């Protein structure tokens, strides 16, 4: 079994991504007392997991584009329009 990593709650929160990719259990402490544990469920290499997730997302996007008969260019154009409207609205409210 991997060694348990012991970290304070602030450290855990600030470096959450690092701890989520570890294969070691993490004991989370507050004022020196353990308040909980993070036990990793997956033991896949993080890069392989991220690559598999990205591939799945790309396949899902391709299926959605086909379903709605959209091209990537049309999707990006709509995204840019929505983003511009959001920025304009934000400027207006400030």
List keywords for this structure.
94 residues, 3 strands, alpha+beta, 16% strand
Layout of secondary structure:
Layout: E1 5-8, H1 9-14, H2 16-20, E2 26-30, E3 33-38, H3 46-67, H4 72-93
Parallel strand pairs: 1-2
Antiparallel strand pairs: 2-3
Structure description:
By secondary structure, the chain is an alpha+beta fold. It has two domains: 5-38; 46-93. The chain is 59% helix and 16% strand. The protein is built from four helices and three strands. It has helices at residues 9-14, 16-20, 46-67, 72-93, and strands at 5-8, 26-30, 33-38. It has a three-stranded mixed sheet with strand order 1-2-3. The mean pLDDT is 87.
Describe the structure concisely.
This protein is an alpha+beta fold and 94 residues long.
- Count of domain modules: 2
**Spatial strand arrangement across the major sheet:** 1-2-3
Helix content: 55-70%
Overall 3D shape: flat
Give me the number of helical elements: 4
In oligomeric terms, what are we looking at? single chain
